[in-house]
C-alpha cells in the first residue's frame, strides 16, 4: 500500500466538481489540506469557494485523495532442472508504479497556484478572421473591451483514483552445449492497466458555427 503524496507546506489544492452550492446553485469548490494553503492561493480561486480536507466530509487527508488499499502484489517464481544439462526458470509478479505522481500530485500542486490574468485593450471593432473571401471564417469578429479579467484554471483528481497495475513476467531456457559454453533463451514481458489519463471537463462541443470574438489581450 502506497499512501497519497503530501506536501510539507500543504501547497496542493483539489477541485470538487460534484459539489453544488446550496445558496447559489454554483457547481464546484476547491479543497485544500489546511488553512496554511490560503496565503498561496489567488483570491479569485478563494472566491469560488473552498474548504479544508477535514471540512469536506469526503474522508480524505492532506494528500486530498483516499489511500488505495487494495494493492495486493504477489510474486511467483520457479526453477526446474529438466536434465543434467537443461534447466528452465520463470516468474510473474504484480507491481504498482509510483509514477502515479504525474497524474495525482503534479496537477493539484501546480495549476491551482498558477492563475492567468489578462488586461484587455480599449474598445475596438475586430474583423472576422481570416475573412470570408474564401467562403468560411472560424472567427466572426466582435469587439475588445477595456478591463481586467482572468481565466481560473484548475484540475481535479478523483478521490478514489487508483494506481496503475503492472504485470511483469519472464521465462528462461538454458542448455549446456560444451564445457564453459551454454545457450540461453529468455522472454521478458510486461502488461500495464489502469493508466491515469486526463479529461477536459470544459471542452468545447463540436460545432459548425464560427466562434464570436469578444475579447483580446494587450
Structure commentary:
The chain has 218 residues and is mainly beta. The protein has helices spanning 43-48, 53-56, 105-110, and strands at residues 14-20, 27-32, 50-52, 75-81, 86-95, 118-120, 124-126, 139-144, 147-149, 165-178, 181-193, 211-213. It has two domains: 14-116 and 151-197, no CATH class; 117-150, no CATH class. Residues 214-218 have low confidence and may be disordered.
Features:
four-stranded antiparallel sheet, single chain, disordered C terminus, 2 domains, 7% helix, mainly beta, 218 residues
Question: What does this entry show, briefly?
Answer:
By secondary structure, this protein is mostly beta strands. The protein is built from 3 helices and 12 strands.
What does the secondary structure layout of this molecule look like, with pairings?
Elements: E1 14-20, E2 27-32, H1 43-48, E3 50-52, H2 53-56, E4 75-81, E5 86-95, H3 105-110, E6 118-120, E7 124-126, E8 139-144, E9 147-149, E10 165-178, E11 181-193, E12 211-213
Parallel strand pairs: 2-3, 8-12
Antiparallel strand pairs: 1-2, 4-5, 5-10, 6-9, 7-8, 10-11
Strand percentage: 35-45%
Number of domains: 2
Rg of Cα set? 27 Å
Helix content: under 10%
The coarse silhouette is elongated
| Secondary-structure element string | EEHEHEEHEEEEEEE
Number of H- or I-type helical stretches: 3
